[in-house]
């Protein structure tokens, strides 16, 4: 049975989606880990309980003690899934490169980035410190944005 024809379209598609790698640079660095918990696109993740697992950030130490793995990468084949990465799925993670992420609060290009480590915004970024966010060496914000906006960040983790 033929499918219905497309009857609408947008002439201004979004620039990117959370977790979209901005440049296909040969210096980008990716790793893969198994999801210990449900994970979304474009969020910083930490080492899981077992070797080679990725987990949701839930403490400041996940950001500052070398446990941070990087940012979960968007994969088109997972768009319709909720959550995109289920427990046991292989997760592609960016450790070095430019990637689009959601801001949990206003950010300004050029400033250092802070990773939120508590609550529903865990794994997102913000431009200022507070009790729920810790500065990450190796994270630079590349575009301005308000709370909830997609912003471009440069990640450089060892």
Structure description:
The chain is mainly beta and 158 residues long. Helices cover 3% and strands 35% of the residues. It is built from 1 helix and 9 strands; from the N terminus they run βββαββββββ. The protein has one helix spanning 61-64, and strands spanning 29-35, 44-47, 53-56, 68-72, 90-102, 112-116, 125-126, 133-141, 150-156. It has a 5-stranded mixed β-barrel with strand order 1-3-2-4-5. The chain is globular, with a radius of gyration of 16 Å. The protein starts with 28 loop residues before the first strand and ends with a strand.
What attributes does this structure have?
mainly beta; Virus Head Decoration Protein, Chain: A; 1 helix; 158 residues
Strand order of the largest sheet: 1-3-2-4-5
Domain unit count: 1
| Structural class label | mainly beta
What pattern of helices and strands is seen along the backbone? EEEHEEEEEE
Spans of at least 5 consecutive residues whose pLDDT stays below 50 are none
CATH topology description: Virus Head Decoration Protein, Chain: A
In terms of DSSP E residues, the strand content is: 35-45%
Number of helices: 1
Label the CATH architecture: Beta Barrel
CATH class, please? Mainly Beta
Shape: globular
Percentage of residues assigned to helices: under 10%
Number of strands: 9
Mean pLDDT: 93
In whole angstroms, the N-to-C terminal distance is 53 Å
| Overall radius of gyration | 16 Å
Main beta sheet:
5 strands, mixed, barrel
Layout: helices, strands, pairs:
Layout: E1 29-35, E2 44-47, E3 53-56, H1 61-64, E4 68-72, E5 90-102, E6 112-116, E7 125-126, E8 133-141, E9 150-156
Parallel strand pairs: 1-3
Antiparallel strand pairs: 1-5, 2-3, 2-4, 4-5, 5-9, 6-7, 6-8, 8-9
